[in-house]
Amino acid sequence: MAGLSRRKARAAWIFLAPMLITLAAIAGWPLLRTFWFSLTDASMADLSAWKFIGFDNYLMKDQYGWGGLLVDPDWWRAVYNTLVFTILSVTLETIFGLLVALVLHQRFFGRSFIRAAILVPWAIPTIVSAKIWAWMLHDQFGILNSMMLSLGLITQPIAWAASPDTALAAIVLVDVWKTTPFMALLCLAALQMLPTDCYEAARLDGIPAWRLFFKVTLPLIRPALMVAVIFRALDALRVFDVIYVLTSNTRDTMSMSVFARQHLVEFQSVGYGSAASTALFMVIALLTALYLTLGRVKLAADPN
Amino acid sequence: MRRFAAFVAPTLTALLFSVSASAVEISLSCGAVGAELTHCQAGADAWAKATGHTVKIVSTPNSATERLALYQQILASGSSDIDVFQIDVIWPGILVNYMIDLTPYAKQETLQHFVSIVANNTVNNKLVAMPWFTDAGLLYYRKDLLEKYGTKVPTTWADLASVAEKIQAGERKAGNDKMWGFVFQGKAYEGLTCNALEWVDSFGGGTFMDDAGKITVNNPHAIEALKTVAGWVGSITPEGVLGYAEEEARGIWQSGNAVFMRNWPYAWALGQAADSPIKNKIGVAALPKGGANGKYSGALGGWQLSVSKFSKNQAVAADLVMYLTSDAEQKRRALVGGYNPTRPALYQDKEILAANPFFDSLYETFTNAAARPAKATGAKYNRVSNEIWNATHAVLSKKETAEKAVPALEAALVRAMR
């Protein structure tokens, strides 16, 4: 028996090997290279001429005082923006996604058509949907302002994406519109796995629907919901395109990814930009680890 | 006759090349702001026809900031995909390592161009790029509206604000509730740095940094300038201006919804196009002065052509550059697109002046034009410009007062330059 399971294990490794090698080449190697670049002063003007400078990109002191990523107010602003965006958008998407899933879980005429149709926003590439929204949110020609003006809700058109007061709200709005279907899909999958017998028992006992939802449905789909939230949060922490397309390129709405790209490409500082990318990686890894531990989420059940 | 010779000479050299070398394909990146791509294509086609080579046009993002980012990624990977790059007046110091020295191809040609632009394009004695067309920020105004309200073209910003307010209020009362007084480029990108430079310089506040790299921005004139502009946003300027680049501002202007616009010369030919609602209603002038003691200013812009060192056909690519920057081609572009030649001689050309009546007054604008501090900052220009547009954007969006933002900008520039 032991020989057989060892043979099976070896076969598993052989089948996994191509994937692992590919993963190491296309994900592992660039990641290590980024870690390494973050310890150098490499510049995009000439990538071959770099010097090892240790942790100076993160923290250093020269005649002007402290410098480096850890004391860079722009970086912390980007971290703050990203966290606010993530918390707002993921919370809203989870709530709306669950609501949509509960509706789609009911039997009604044309349900399968609606289920397919609701995925459309998610299927549109973000660049495209962000541009569409940029026009709809436009202060002079946008449909949103025009509708609100004619309804008398506002007296002056609002520059949704341009004004720093509303820009973050506009970004969250577009992201929620785009990604709610994804959350709904995951919630729906969880709902369809639920056993029907406890619902029948509840119906016989005459338990009100809202109580049933909080006492039975929610605890049962919690594990699936937690995984869905992780997926979305990981995505939201890396947010780039919706911000880049929709808003002005200012510090007010800059995310960690936008910050890293700005230094890597626009400022040609591959070293500093890599340090920002590394820090972004660390922040995401840390938050994920925290979430998995505190939420006691098991990503996979181990049979042994 | 001289012009004829100037036209024939590059064509002949090109012909010689086509005989000696087999036909190749040159890829040329040019901008697509307004009708740029069409004019670029026409020039390249003429060269291709004369030489037997072919040209592939690569269109690039409208925003100069994004265009540079794209170039840097292509060049840093050592790609030979693009042979000829259209580069901004502030980029020679940033891209110097990636471009070939054009001196052997240009020979005496450089003497025919504005000395200041050739000097700008020469880094460490290397001619990084040939001047193609030059630019300066201009004030566009609605002739018909100024006449209707019996006012003259404003010469100070305070004048402009009061005229704009009056006409905006009058037109809105008359039924056009979309009418605005003044639009410009307020999005946080390179264009805002140009606008900020014009405001500050017109108030006598200098150009953020002098030629030696000394930071000069922290002065009362600069604060006054930014304070003035912040007062316009929401009153004579739509708040959406905080997200407008060149084409967004032109969109408002050309649909007839603005009295004044700050933009580059390219907007003239488009505003005068057959399908333009404001055709023959446009006037162009120098940007106003900061006050009685201020000066007329305009940010010096303009685009150059350079050849990538990764190009597999450098000589042919350089020949295309010499053709496109030639006397005849610059004249053609001035006639069809209103692009400003980089050759002083063409500003005396009768045909050009007939097609672009404002070129005459522009000549003076160019002599007053304020250069962005690219020479002093070298490769760090982007970082410096980013600080400038962020500080300006914060003041325009009223997140920061000018009194606080200007000293903070000074400190940020010191950090950026270290």
Question: How would you portray this structure in words?
Answer:
The complex is a heterodimer of chains A (304) and B (418). With 304 residues, chain A is mainly α. Chain A has one domain: Orthogonal Bundle (MetI-like fold), CATH 1.10.3720.10. Chain A contains twelve helices and two strands; from the N terminus they run αββααααααααααα. Chain A has helices spanning 2-37, 73-105, 111-117, 120-123, 126-136, 143-150, 164-192, 197-205, 209-237, 241-246, 256-266, 270-294; strands at residues 60-62, 65-67. A two-stranded antiparallel sheet of chain A has the order 1-2. In chain A, α7 crosses α9 and α11 (256-266) packs antiparallel against α12 (270-294). Chain A is globular. The model of chain A has no long low-confidence stretch (mean pLDDT 89). With 418 residues, chain B is of the alpha/beta class. Chain B folds into two domains: 23-135 and 301-367, D-Maltodextrin-Binding Protein, domain 2 (3-Layer(aba) Sandwich); 138-299 and 374-417, Periplasmic binding protein-like II (D-Maltodextrin-Binding Protein, domain 2, 3-Layer(aba) Sandwich), CATH 3.40.190.10. Chain B has helices at residues 2-20, 36-51, 64-76, 92-95, 103-106, 115-121, 143-148, 157-173, 190-202, 220-232, 246-254, 266-271, 314-324, 327-337, 350-355, 359-368, 374-377, 381-396, 402-417; strands at residues 25-30, 54-59, 84-88, 122-123, 126-127, 130-136, 138-142, 180-183, 258-263, 282-285, 300-307. Chain B has a five-stranded mixed sheet, sandwiched between helices. In chain B, α9 (190-202) crosses α10 and α9 packs across α18. Chain B is globular and about 65 Å long. Chain B starts with a helix and ends with a helix. The mean pLDDT of chain B is 90. Classes of the chains: A mainly alpha (304), B alpha/beta (418). The A-B interface holds A 43-47, 62, 64, 67, 138-141, 157-159, 161-164, 247-252, 262, 265-268 and B 65, 68-69, 72-73, 76, 94, 97-98, 178, 186-189, 238-244, 251-252, 257, 379, 382-383, 386, 390, 393-394, 397, 399, 414-415, 418.
